[in-house]
């Protein structure tokens, strides 16, 4: 568990970072908190010849309100998300989910940018970002572009990030006042990735679900939006039959791998249960 | 006497002797990051070694090409089996009478087996080097399932043993067979089963797991060519044994080998045996003339050094309709992996598994154990238990629950009915042990009262009815465990390691000012010996524990001891300490008599000195006696005040305990919650109640981990799939339940201070309590036995198989 040798760079601006990435080509990787990348390097599953540390770029940090959006700099740590009053107030599901990531040590270092850019289906933030309708700002040699989180994930560790691009910030629409939310995550222990997790953001009107978005973590090679499941609950009061239908619709799109967390059948089954529980808890919180 | 004269209570308290919750003296350095562990040892010019390991579980090694590796900057040497053959060290003897490859010799037999040892100027270069060694393998069919080991068409693993129809423990039935070990009266037992009114039979497996101490196995070997001396700093639970093993296999004079075990970050059996890393580092140091450090990483520790358990126990009990047990029959299939490297006393191929009759009065029993080879890592160490005692306790405690279920009897009642009675001690078990002391009924009843057992059963009945009505998806289980351990190996009449009797030792040297040093043959790995050993001496000789320094782990200074594992330190070394202290006290008494001008027999020991019987004021403190020992001893007596004791215990000790686990399981997800865990331990005399409590907490946490998910698992083609803490369940403070501890005290009649040992009881007794709770929860749905580990998905699967989830 000793990484191979690599060169270390610490640019002071996004432009410099992009230039390094372009010049050094495929052998270079951005380094954020290092809590996904460094373990891979220690196992020599990743062997980048150059690490471009983004910690020297002040512009990549911070949380700000921009109209109806929260804009979160890529290098904002999970701990900073948890410490933010703005997040707690306007986007409590982000607080709830961040608290379920690993442990304090990991959260002090791990960044939201690294978490969403990594492309690991086990990461919690991607499905949540899809549920919230977030978009990512990517900056490369050719300038900046925005891409919806829902369009970003292509396969395990495959994303829409082009060579030479850096994810600089995330823009998340603030959910409607009075919305209900829940992030339900089944894990074996603190520090474990989800066996299955579901994010739900909904609004209720007259005791019935008015709007709903459901995201799924670690039950497929990419994070998922469970659109059919969300559709199934609209206009209902989340009675038992509806919940069952939603869980079944969500399970139908899951294709998890069998691993030490359990066989495929189990992970799909509990994936459905996470959806059910998240819906119930979200509804109970909606005003 | 005036107000300032300390009372007897104050004088006793000042000693901080036995029974005192003395704070751990070693924690002062541990909590400040000032411990000194092997990885802290940095010698001038020190090199680093690292292993090339096999990706295959079973393969022929066709070629090892080290040419590219030797070009990596910093790499100095690549050692292979061919190198080791020049010094006759390609293979090494195991503690179990087998031999083991140090580096792959023609073949590899388990995934991550050591293939080559790369020596470099730093760890990074060594790792670069191992990645540059090219090994050509020819994969062979792997043997993973122990139940297939002795099939006619199974691949033969150990080509070195082909045709040898007898091993260290008798005849072999197959090339993949290691030994068969039988104990007990077969005819009588068969007869009991033929007559039995009620019988149960179940395959009870205890899965493969690993002790996984925080600090992995490591060493620094330094060979001094001029003096011809080898110094080894290592994470050794038994430093003297390592010294003797090195002397025997490396053919070095034993006095020129210095083994030093500094602070150890947990052992749990992982650090008893000898590993290829030690041999390779020693050879590398001899070859290069430089000190060589070898430090395992976590993956290597979990996958290559010393697993534990892996016992498949077919268990049968015969009983009367009323629930009186009449016979026990157990067959064990023991998966030993590629080499038989079990760390048991030499004559005990299955350890003390014949304690399997447990706390119950079985009139007859028969046990047979077959050990087999598979393509898995070697080991079979006693993971926080006396040798194979955890397996035995799990076997009998699970089986008693199964019998209770069959009889439709409460498992507590069944146990009470069959306990060995207080008046039967010393008790001779059907499988050959002499239990020293016990009062099982009292302990069991205390547990039942403290936990409100009857009310819990009532609640469970209500919960089950609610579950049947569809009102809840939670099921509730009560797991009882009433275990009897056998620890303190052991009496020379039946215990040795490589021919050395399993005594232990202590040397005490009192200095003139009333302070002293005690050197002991045991070796703490976190148990707190520096604290408790001083407490024994404090009470025995009346010198404050703070004035006694305890030293262990340096073979040049400590008297020869067999080390610390199997809860043997208190029963054996603890006894040696008391006996050495008594020798000091006896000499002190002679000095006091001389100084007080009375006959020795007129003196009585009084807390911290000797007093003339009936004469309050004629008193000499131990402190003053120490001074006198260096200037005015009686004529003819040698000056000084020191003593050595080597203690050969007359018997083992038999700690016991009554545990109860209350668990709720959500059948839809399999997620469990340990609502309560009560642990009553009887370890005889209690030296330091705080340390006992700490030991119980630690052992229960490990038991919880093992029962609820901690396993070393291989897939069907022999890949080890639980090689890191991501998948090998290591609970954090968040998952760990709250522990309630309690005790009774039944001293050991043969031990000088009546102490029995406690470090391992909670692991031994805890596992069956957790597993019985899970099984009890599912029993009303029709389950008789669900195999461990009981992690979430397996609980869900159990519920599904029983029709409780769609
Ligand atoms: C024990 C442990 C448990 C964990 N458990 C969880 C968990 O339960 N849930 C969870 O979500 N995560 C978990 N993590 C992962 C953790 O949240 C990581 O910190 C996170 O996934 C990656 O963020 P990072 O800042 O550490 O990124 P890094 O590790 O530095 O980078 C990850 C990848 O993203 C790339 N990258 C990083 N930043 C950018 C950027 N701005 N633009 C482009 N590419 C970039 C890197 O090149 C690299 O390929 C765990 C980690 C550990 C060590």
UniProtKB/TrEMBL annotation, chain A:
SUPFAM superfamilies: CO dehydrogenase flavoprotein C-terminal domain-like, FAD-binding/transporter-associated domain-like. Residues 1-177 form the FAD-binding PCMH-type domain. One of its GO terms (molecular function) is oxidoreductase activity. Keywords: FAD, Flavoprotein, Oxidoreductase. The lineage of its organism: Bacteria, Pseudomonadati, Pseudomonadota, Alphaproteobacteria, Hyphomicrobiales. InterPro entries: CO_DH_flav_C, CO_DH_flav_C_dom_sf, Diverse_Substr_Oxidored, FAD-bd_PCMH, FAD-bd_PCMH-like_sf, FAD-bd_PCMH_sub1, FAD-bd_PCMH_sub2, Mopterin_DH_FAD-bd. This is Xanthine dehydrogenase family protein subunit M. It comes from Bradyrhizobium rifense. PROSITE patterns: FAD_PCMH. Gene3D superfamilies: 3.30.465.10, CO dehydrogenase flavoprotein, C-terminal domain, Uridine Diphospho-n-acetylenolpyruvylglucosamine Reductase, domain 2.
From TrEMBL, chain B:
Its EC number is 1.2.5.3. It catalyses: CO + a quinone + H2O = a quinol + CO2. The keyword Cell inner membrane does not apply. SUPFAM superfamilies: CO dehydrogenase molybdoprotein N-domain-like, Molybdenum cofactor-binding domain. Keywords: Copper, Metal-binding, Molybdenum, Oxidoreductase. It comes from the Bacteria. GO terms for molecular function: anaerobic carbon-monoxide dehydrogenase activity; carbon-monoxide oxygenase activity; copper ion binding; iron ion binding; molybdenum ion binding. Pfam families: Ald_Xan_dh_C, MoCoBD_1, MoCoBD_2. Its cofactor is Cu(+); Mo-molybdopterin cytosine dinucleotide. The keyword Metal-binding applies. Residues 32-141 form the Aldehyde oxidase/xanthine dehydrogenase a/b hammerhead domain. Catalyzes the oxidation of carbon monoxide to carbon dioxide. Dimer of heterotrimers. Each heterotrimer consists of a large, a medium and a small subunit. This is Carbon monoxide dehydrogenase large chain. It comes from Bradyrhizobium rifense.
């Amino acid at each position: 568990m000793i990484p191979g040798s690599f060169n270390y760079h610490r640019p002071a601006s996004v432009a410099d970072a992009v230039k390094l990435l372009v010049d050094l080509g495929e052998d270079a990787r951005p380094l954020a908190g290092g809590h996904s990348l460094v373990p891979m390097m220690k196992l020599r599953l990743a062997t980048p010849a150059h690490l471009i540390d983004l910690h020297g770029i002040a512009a990549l940090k911070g949380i700000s309100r921009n109209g109806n959006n929260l804009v979160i700099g890529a290098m904002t740590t999970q701990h900073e998300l948890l410490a933010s009053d703005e997040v707690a107030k306007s986007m409590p599901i982000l607080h709830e989910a961040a608290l379920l990531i690993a442990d304090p040590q990991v959260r002090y270092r791990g960044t939201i940018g690294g978490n969403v850019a990594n492309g690991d289906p086990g990461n919690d933030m991607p499905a949540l970002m899809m549920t919230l309708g977030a978009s990512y700002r990517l900056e490369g040699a050719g300038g900046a572009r925005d891409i919806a989180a829902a369009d970003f994930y292509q396969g395990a560790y495959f994303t829409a990030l082009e060579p030479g691009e850096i994810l600089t910030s995330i823009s998340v629409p603030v959910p409607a006042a009075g919305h209900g939310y829940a992030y339900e995550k089944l894990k074996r222990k603190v520090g474990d990735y989800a066996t299955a997790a579901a994010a739900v953001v909904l609004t209720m009107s007259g005791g019935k679900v008015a709007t709903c978005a459901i995201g799924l973590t670690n039950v497929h090679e990419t994070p998922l939006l469970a659109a059919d499941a969300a559709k199934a609950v609209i206009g209902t009061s989340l009675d038992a039959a509806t919940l069952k239908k939603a869980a079944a619709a969500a399970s139908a799109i899951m294709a998890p791998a069998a691993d030490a967390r359990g066989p495929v059948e189990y992970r799909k089954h509990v994936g459905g249960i996470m959806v059910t529980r998240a819906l119930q808890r979200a509804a109970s919180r909606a005003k | 006497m005036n107000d300032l004269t300390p009372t007897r209570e104050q004088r006793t308290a000042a000693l901080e002797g036995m029974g005192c919750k003395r704070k751990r003296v070693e924690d002062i350095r541990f909590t400040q990051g000032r411990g000194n562990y092997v990885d802290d040892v940095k010698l001038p010019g020190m090199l680093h070694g690292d292993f090339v390991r096999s990706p295959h579980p079973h393969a022929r090694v066709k070629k090892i090409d080290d040419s590219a590796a030797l070009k990596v900057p910093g790499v100095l040497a690549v050692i292979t089996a061919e190198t080791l053959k020049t010094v006759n060290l390609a293979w090494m003897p195991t503690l179990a009478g087998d031999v083991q490859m140090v580096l792959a010799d023609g073949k590899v037999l388990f995934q991550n087996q050591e293939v080559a040892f790369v020596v470099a100027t730093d760890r990074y270069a060594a790792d670069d080097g191992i990645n540059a060694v090219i090994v050509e393998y020819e994969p062979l069919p792997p043997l993973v399932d122990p139940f297939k080991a002795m099939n006619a068409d199974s691949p033969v693993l150990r080509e070195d043993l082909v045709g040898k129809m007898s091993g260290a423990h008798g005849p072999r039935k197959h090339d993949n067979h290691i030994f068969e070990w039988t104990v007990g009266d077969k005819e009588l037992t068969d007869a009991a089963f033929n007559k039995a009114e009620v019988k149960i039979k179940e395959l009870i497996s205890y899965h493969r797991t690993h002790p996984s101490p925080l600090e992995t196995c490591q060493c620094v070997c330094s060979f001094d060519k001029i003096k011809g001396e080898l110094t080894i700093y290592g994470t050794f639970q038994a430093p003297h044994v390592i010294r003797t093993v090195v002397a025997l296999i490396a053919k070095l004079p034993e006095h020129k080998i210095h083994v030093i075990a500094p602070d150890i970050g947990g052992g749990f059996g992982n650090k008893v045996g000898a590993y290829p890393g030690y041999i390779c580092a020693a050879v590398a140091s001899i070859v290069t003339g430089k000190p060589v450090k070898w430090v395992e990483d976590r993956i290597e520790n979990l996958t290559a050094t010393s697993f534990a358990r892996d016992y498949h126990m077919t268990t049968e009990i015969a009983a009367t309709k009323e629930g009186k047990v009449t016979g026990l029959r157990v067959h064990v299939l023991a998966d030993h992996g590629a080499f038989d490297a079990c760390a048991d006393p030499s004559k005990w191929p299955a350890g003390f598994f014949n304690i399997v009759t447990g706390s119950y009065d079985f009139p007859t029993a028969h046990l047979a154990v077959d050990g087999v080879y598979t393509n898995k890592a070697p080991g079979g160490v006693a993971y926080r238990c006396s040798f194979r005692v955890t397996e035995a306790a799990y076997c009998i405690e699970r089986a008693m629950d199964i019998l209770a279920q069959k009889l439709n009897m409460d498992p507590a009642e069944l146990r009470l009915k069959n306990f060995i009675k207080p008046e039967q001690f010393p008790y001779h078990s059907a499988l050959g042990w002499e239990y020293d002391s016990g009062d099982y009924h009292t302990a069991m009843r205390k547990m039942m009262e403290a936990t409100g057992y009857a009310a819990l059963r009532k609640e469970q009945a209500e919960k089950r009815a609610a579950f049947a009505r569809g009102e809840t998806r939670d099921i509730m289980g009560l797991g009882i465990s009433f275990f009897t351990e056998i620890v303190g190996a052991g009496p020379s009449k039946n215990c040795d390691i490589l021919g050395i009797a399993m005594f232990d030792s202590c040397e005490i040297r009192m200095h003139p000012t009333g302070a002293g040093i005690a050197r002991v043959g045991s070796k703490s790995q976190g148990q707190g010996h520096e604290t408790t050993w001083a407490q024994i001496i404090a009470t025995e000789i009346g010198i404050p524990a703070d004035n006694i320094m305890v030293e262990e782990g340096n073979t040049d200074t400590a008297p020869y001891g067999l080390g610390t594992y199997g809860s043997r330190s208190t029963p054996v070394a603890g006894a040696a300490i008391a006996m050495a202290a008594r020798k000091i006290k006896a000499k002190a008494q002679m000095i006091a008599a001389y100084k007080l001008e009375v006959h020795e027999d007129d003196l009585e020991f009084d807390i911290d000195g000797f007093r003339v019987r009936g004469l309050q004021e004629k008193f000499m403190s131990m402190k003053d006696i120490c001074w006198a020992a260096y200037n005015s001893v009686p004529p003819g007596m040698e000056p000084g005040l020191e003593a050595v004791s080597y203690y050969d215990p007359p018997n083992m000790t038999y700690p016991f305990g009554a545990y109860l686990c209350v668990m709720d399981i959500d059948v839809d997800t399999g997620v469990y919650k340990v609502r309560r865990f009560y642990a009553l331990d009887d370890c005889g005399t209690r030296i330091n109640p705080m340390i006992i409590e700490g030991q119980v907490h630690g052992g229960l946490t490990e038991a919880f981990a093992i029962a609820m998910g901690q396993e070393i698992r291989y897939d069907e083609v022999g890949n080890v799939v639980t090689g890191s803490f991501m998948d090998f369940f290591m609970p954090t403070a968040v998952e760990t339940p709250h522990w309630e501890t309690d005790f009774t005290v039944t001293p050991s009649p043969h031990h000088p201070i009546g102490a029995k040992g406690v470090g391992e009881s909670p692991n031994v007794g805890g596992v069956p309590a957790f597993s019985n709770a899970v099984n009890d929860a599912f029993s009303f749905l029709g389950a008789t036995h669900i195999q461990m580990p009981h992690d979430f998905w397996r609980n869900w699967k159990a519920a599904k198989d029983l029709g409780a989830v769609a």
